[in-house]
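Recall that a protein's primary structure is simply its ordered list of amino acids. Everything else, from secondary elements to tertiary packing, is in principle encoded there. The following example makes that idea concrete.
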Amino acid sequence: MKNRKIPLNLNCGLDLVGEVLYGKWKMRLLWFIKQGHKRPSELQRKIPDASRRVLNVQLKELEDHELISKVVYAVVPPKVEYNLTEFGESLIPVIGAIGQWGDKNEERLRSLIMAKPIVNVEVLNEG
């Protein structure tokens, strides 16, 4: 288990959901697994901006939180597939609603995100 810099705060449902779904690619991984992309290489092709290592870490966390299950086939080369659990399936409507909200507000969100200044952390640390 990794050491945490900030102690867990699990006082409400939003805290709990944030702890389980925190991670840039987790909602997309769940969505793509639901669509039938079950192999790590398929998921990597669907999310090319994510490194294989990051995807593996986030898949492991989703598995630890019982949202997905991992099946390892005893073949050469090894074959792995991920499936949503019943618990993970229950999140799909929520993820769909978030995606619809994003689609509905795409133009506004895109302009707000693109207007955000890029902060150079090194410059902040020098001051």
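The helical segments are 13-21, 26-34, 40-46, 52-64, 86-89, 92-104, 106-115, 121-126. The longest strand covers residues 68-73.
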